Structures are given as C-alpha cells and as structure tokens.
Amino acid sequence: MNKSIKLHIKDGGHIVSIYDDALVPLISEAASTTTTRASHVEPCGAGEWSADMSPINGQMLIGFKTRAAALDAEREYINEFLLTGILPAGQTKGN
Hints:
Blueprint: E1 7-9, E2 15-17, H1 24-29, E3 40-43, E4 49-52, E5 60-64, H2 67-84
C-alpha cells in the first residue's frame, strides 16, 4: 500500500509535516528538527472517538465511530492548517 506524506515548505525554507516513521531518513539528514504534539485522539464515551486539536489552538473534533475516522479527520485538519496557516472554522462532527 502506498501512502502519501504531505510536506509543507514555509517561508525561510522550514519544512513542516505530520510525523510519520517513513520520514526518518529525511529527518536524519536534517541539520535540526523539532517534533511537537498537534492533537490528542482519544475515546470519548458511547463508543465514539474525538480529536482534540487544542495543542495547535484548534477545535475539538467529535463524534467519530472509529479511531481510524478520528485519525483521518485529524490529519485533514492539520494539513489544512499547515497549508493555509488558518485553523479550519467550526466544530466538526464525525460520521
């Protein structure tokens, strides 16, 4: 299975991405790196999952039936933020 990893190149040449082990070869060649938490995906009761985006001053994404769905929403939210520099508006409820 092929998966894509989005790299966002910011002013000054800084590269920002959601961490993935596939990036280890790239990271090991970098002069310096910083890894920070962008969110918390947790069970929230009643068999649902949420993605708390507060570490990047974002919203709580709620109501996902599976952890995988919450992780997908988390990645989409973070990538939109990294691409635009603007946090997506409105609270998101999962399917």
